[in-house]
Amino acid sequence: MIKKLASLFKLDSTVIKGSGDDCAVLKFNSKMRQLFTCDMIVEGVDFTPRDNPYLVGRKALAISISDIAACAGIPRHAVVSLGLPRNSTVSRISKIAKGISELAERYGINIVGGDISSSPRLTIDVSMLGVVEKKKLCLRSTARKEDIIFVSGALGGSIKGKHLKFEPRLKEARFLVRHFKVNSMIDISDGLTQDLWHILEQSSLSAVLYESLIPLTKEASGLRDALYSGEDFELLFTASRKEAKKIFAAKSYKFFPIGEIVSGGPGLSLVDKRNRQIRIYPKGYRHF
Amino acid sequence: MIKKLASLFKLDSTVIKGSGDDCAVLKFNSKMRQLFTCDMIVEGVDFTPRDNPYLVGRKALAISISDIAACAGIPRHAVVSLGLPRNSTVSRISKIAKGISELAERYGINIVGGDISSSPRLTIDVSMLGVVEKKKLCLRSTARKEDIIFVSGALGGSIKGKHLKFEPRLKEARFLVRHFKVNSMIDISDGLTQDLWHILEQSSLSAVLYESLIPLTKEASGLRDALYSGEDFELLFTASRKEAKKIFAAKSYKFFPIGEIVSGGPGLSLVDKRNRQIRIYPKGYRHF
């Protein structure tokens, strides 16, 4: 659907990359690109009425920071549209705003505007601008054959709380592109297999994952949870074997190699603990 | 409420103007500022389920173009978040997208990304980027004593259809700042008196309007409609008497002088058709 809609829209030469990646990439100046992204969260879909409104506001902003991180950028400015039920209390709205403002301040993001509308269910849409050095920009479409696939942390069980409290992997992404050559990157929002599929589809390549290498959170119910559940908000990235060795040896942050990129595709398989290679299919959270 | 929330957010020196104007104003390069704005529309509030989805999509984008116009800028890029009820048909979604894409193309705007979420009621949030020459930027806070107040077109009765079909006054705004010195500008979204009040409050001045000068649409039910109804999406701007004469004499577009800025304030009064000056108060559409 998104692909079909995106094809309607004509783009001029100031757009380096339109929809289809974590952020749009726009011309900015001789050294930098501008990143532009938006994410909407809705009560009953992305959070429940019982969730702490401070954490709901925080999540709305954190998702966009994670998108900027996935392009290896630095978040700079955001605008926030709030759709509020008519019975919203000032206390609840203030908590949402506090969740937004505290995270924004910590990441040096200016909240420069917004819109408030009435809406039957609490809805928060954040649009964020960032910048990235031309040479450090990471996309989904640029994985290479024989790349090693990494994740920035353990997967699964996010629904038990991490989805509201996760720390966007901004420092990790910037550390990676400062010290190593990363070929492709995305953040895991829809689930490992579905987000890896975006890289494979856009790079026209396949991947082999190794069950024994996939790190699970202690909240994860098992492998399926790690493969198919959404909202881990970890980085998923690929780098050449040579770079991979250096990344694996990095002291500042721990990155987990979980598989490799192979030719042809897109296609996806898993080598299980009994060393059988089985074909698997991208699945994850779908809104419809 | 918005003011209270805005005070939570700390801004750095790359922000020329945060929330409180039609757009945020950001540093861009030596000659230009970047403009950033967002607007959310929700079914049942800003349009009805029976409205043509093509026009609903069009409206979502047109509102943001009007905000960029109010700052005298040029719209460049937008991202669109769609909250869709689960029973949305592909045909309805395509019509919304067509309403957005056709208007975007006509105004040279790149739709560079988006997000689709499920939502109990159709919700469209558009965030838009634009640029404006430093010297042409128009704000709400810079009206001057003895300025003449203008509107770009007739007011009132927008609910009868104009709110879905209005042409954002972008050409008019650019014409104004290319040829004249405009001191302050806003677009009328909440209603003449309420939006004029934003100028008066931020400029610490008062205004006198002349009933006989206020142009009414043929759909307007009367003066009250023109003063207090929202969504006219006309430009409301002020210029010195000297500039006002030239603006009034312009051949390309017709601008209507409706009053003048006076010292002190904020305050607002109306000279009625019997030449009585009466104090009036800002009122308009309120979401809560």
Describe this structure in words.
Two copies of one chain form a homodimer. The first copy, chain A, is built from eight helices and 13 strands. Chain A has helices at residues 2-8, 53-70, 90-106, 162-165, 170-179, 192-203, 223-228, 241-248, and strands spanning 15-17, 24-27, 32-42, 74-84, 110-118, 123-133, 148-151, 184-187, 206-210, 235-239, 256-262, 267-271, 277-279. Chain A is globular, with a radius of gyration of 19 Å. The interface between A and B is large, with 63 and 63 residues.
> Spans of chain A with pLDDT under 50 lasting ≥5 residues?
none
Helix content of chain A: 25-40%
Oligomer: homodimer
Strand content of chain A is 25-35%
In which order are the strands of the major sheet of chain A placed? 8-10-7-11-9-12-13
- Count of helical segments of chain A? 8
> What's the end-to-end separation of chain A, in Å?
10 Å
Most extensive contact: A-B, 63 and 63 residues
Overall morphology of chain A? globular
Question: Got a strand count of chain A?
Answer: 13
What is the helix/strand order of chain A?
A: HEEEHEHEEEHHEHEHEHEEE
Largest sheet of chain A: 7 strands, mixed
Radius of gyration of chain A, CA atoms, in whole angstroms: 19 Å
How would you classify the helix and strand content of chain A by structural class?
alpha+beta
- Rounded mean pLDDT score of chain A: 95
